[in-house]
Amino acid sequence: MSLRKFITNKTTAALAVLLTVFANTSVFAQDAAAGAAAAPKVDMGEVYKSVIFYILVFLAICLFIAIVGKSIRVYELSREAQGKPVGINWNRVHASLFALFLVLGLYGVYWEYTVHGAMLLPDAASIHGKRIDDMFNLTLIITTIVFVVTHILLFGFSYVYKYSAKRKAYYYPHNNLIEKIWTIVPALVLTVLVLMGFLTWRSIFYKVDDPKNMPIQIEMTSEQFKWTIRYPGTDGVVGHKNYKLITASNTLGIDFKDLKSRDDQMADEMVIPVGKPIKLILTSKDVIHSFYMPHFRVQLNTVPGMQTIFEFTPTITTAEMQQKTNDPNFKYLFYCAKICGSGHYNMQKVVRVVSMEEYKTWLAEQKTYLNDDLRKQFNLPVAPAPVNSGTDSAATDSAAVKTNQMALNK
Amino acid sequence: MSTIALHDEHNHDHADHGHHKETLISKYIFSMDHKMIAKQFLITGIIMAVIAMGLSILFRIQLAWPDKNFPFLETFLGKWAEGGRIKSDFYLALVTIHGTIMVFFVLTAGLSGTFSNLLIPLQIGARDMASPFLNMLSYWFFFTACVVMMGSFFIQTGPASGGWTVYPPLSIIETAIPGSGLGMTMWLISMILFVASSLMGGINYVSTILNMRTKGMDLWKMPLTIWAFFLTAILGILSFPVLVAGVVLMIFDRSFGTSFYLSDIVMGTNILPNEGGSPILWQHLFWFLGHPEVYIVIMPALGISSEVISVNSRKPIFGYHAMVYSLIGITVLSFIVWGHHMFVTGMNPLLGGVFMITTLIIAVPSAVKTFNYLATLWRGNIRFTPAMLFAIGLVSFFISGGLTGIFLGNASLDINLHDTYFVVAHFHLVMGSAAIFGMLAGVYHWYPKMFGRMMNAKLGYLHFWLTFIAAYLVFFPLHFLGLDGVPRRYYAFTEFEFMKKWLTVNVFVTWAAIMAALAQVAFLFNFFYSIYKGKKAPQNPWESNTLEWTAPVEHLHGNWPGEIPTVYRWPYDYSKPGHDADFIPQTVPFSQTMSSNLPHDFEGNEEAEKIQQDWEIANPVTENKG
Q1: How many domains does chain A have?
Q2: Which residue of A has its CA nearest to B374?
Q3: What is the rounded CA–CA span in Å between residue B181 and residue B159?
Q4: ipTM
Q5: Which of A167, A187, A286 sits opposite B267 (nearest CB)?
Q6: Cβ-based burial of B221 (10 A; exposed 0-12, middle 13-18, buried ≥19)
Q7: Where is the Cytochrome oxidase subunit I profile domain (chain B) (predicted)?
Q8: Fold of the B31-533 domain
Q9: How far apart are CA B315 and CA B344, in angstroms?
Q10: End-to-end Cα distance, chain A
Q11: For the segment B6-61, what is each residue's pLDDT rounded down to a tens digit?
């Protein structure tokens, strides 16, 4: 591989690249109109200059590498001609580089853990979230130990057992005892993790409702690219809906023939009382989205054609979290985590965790979905007694009162 | 390509000299020789990898500088990057096609296709594949699949953009995203062609390995590469058809108005008539392939690295049987873990618990493999050839990515990590980086076998170190984005206050990715330059035991002139005490290595043991051996 040929080769390649760049201003099939409209916007001369600049920089680096490569070759040939041992012991070079990589790498990992590790989500703001965090920390400790030890062994062995003509490797095809040990030990560790994970998982998804502390139902409906929140109203139950009833004025397709629907309320943000179980009913109108609320360690997909349910209990109010994180602008959020189209990256709503009193006042101010237009559509009397204003929203607390409320609504 | 071929066909007489029966068209294009097909797979795979890497640089630029204009992007992409900024739709198309190409075309066809084709006949001692014609078809189906997939960049609505998992309804409803129009149809057609190609390949690999091993090559004398390819092919044969079934149903849903995956859907106020289907069904069908698929990707890489590490440590692979059993374990278990991709899809939580158990069990054979690699290095005599460097890199990535898998395999932890950058970081380490490193190790190691020439080692060193460092710089920080709750496939981080602190990390990651991409120039130059100008390869450049190095350097149809060599021993007799050289090829009978034979070499053959004992009594020099 002669230097001259190398360079000529590079240059031809580079010329080819440049030619392609200039020749094909429109590589892909698309309307000529779009291309024409976009043309006058930028002065392409500058652009080409900067592109050429970067290509030249890259070529210069290539040239530099080629020169270094050649000098190494010349050095090695001259050593050979003088009858001295080989110029560079590459095995030693790589062994040392691995050792260096180990040291720098471990420092890098430490740096990442401490610097980026400090930029993460605050402590979980829900009961089950704490269990998840505990599991996470346990897993992190175990995996970090394994990670560090195996890497020390991997790069350490690479350093220590680098090639030497004087030595012969140790013929050691197998050792059943050692193999059994390192099959059983990971199996045991994983059994512990599996058991803990399984129990945590069960505690999250298999909840038995406490009749004295019934969860508050909130329904979330996702569509491209927004969320619609539905509170159950005074009866504490989110009413039926049917996608076939969806119209411009009834965007959720709520079936107002169902009495439980008539008091359902709309909201711009999700406001929930601290310490109270919340039962999220997740549905989707169009494609699959994912309801993701990382501060509470909550995520579940919203799937068209079926309901998914996630129950959690918030433990820290927004105000408390603002203090904890030292950030007066802190907000809980929920957003979409499943690819759903061009607006996927901006599909969010604010969550406010407040005290029970605040929640009740806020809830009383929310409007119902049922309005006069919809009443006409569903052949309901247009001006009935106001459904939600007078009723006591505290009734949502207890299942016993629920039936009374329903009776009232009739 | 085809124009050259046609041209050549007409000038048959001129092109003919040099090879007697072969025309250019039968030698280079519709070749039925496994070595040529392997090269076709490899070069197509490399081209696809470069394209997919280019796509990734495009979306990395968007992530790093979401507010900046890059007018040169408009030069290339036209309306998809109007004003020099990539559009949100096109961003999703980029990630989708990047993923599809990398997973299927590069790491499945490019890796398995190349090395199974090259090594199976050469390492088991066969003249060619069981069905050379099917083998040729396998390549051309793959090639057509690539063309169709890339073709989707040249249509009005752009390529498929619902993510590489193409979850319906997003991928079915055209109004949901432009890419779900013709682009998605092309994706599906391409995928059917690809699966057909994979199946033809897989059936061929399995039947060749089972039926065409040379004399003496029993299953337990096969190199681990062959075991890995064998089990990979079985995985592919059993799982790919399920994907086709899913794809066919999706084609029906898209084009013929059925409702397998659709129900209760309203686009805006347009109520779709579909009823009774379930989008979750697709996820089950997809991941029933999709999870074995990631093992289809990693197992050949593990097989290659087993061979490379053993050869270059000058030591037998530690725990050969354990390595095979762990591969078998991974193969079997990989069929019952697909649900861990679906913990938060609303699948029955009971299933979540079950899939968590099976998923974490699969970590055990993986751990065994890792420890065995480490034990192989221990007290070795390590030669850092470029292939060896990449194999060590693979082990490192396999450890790092495997450990993060323990988080994701745990259903409870997955709740908060699902579909975040943690997942992206995890699979890019364990499936992306590790498998690519396995592939590169294979290329550097068997290049002399493929092209009869050596690659430049120093460019290989440069290539390794730049890629190794850059890959960690790219993927390690991404874990932390995920832990902060940043979802994947976000076009820009600008809409969320809390994500803004990660913008600097994104800039850093993008520069590291650009560095990694440029480092590949060293490889590409080395690869293509050495085909013509590389040093001529010696017969056995790495002093390796396996059968392929006994075949002549100059390729010939049928691999060996005269009889196929007979195999007498396992492929890992490196540095055997009592033998003068530090390797004993598989073709050397025990009668020629009396001084180094060990009792277990004879597998209980009493006659042979007796001969050995008699010899040892007659030659007392051997008393110092273990």
Answers
A1: 3
A2: A154
A3: 8
A4: 0.91
A5: A286
A6: buried
A7: 24-550
A8: Cytochrome C Oxidase; Chain A (1.20.210)
A9: 46
A10: 92
A11: 444 444 444 334 445 667 777 788 888 999 999 999 999 999 999 999 999 999 99
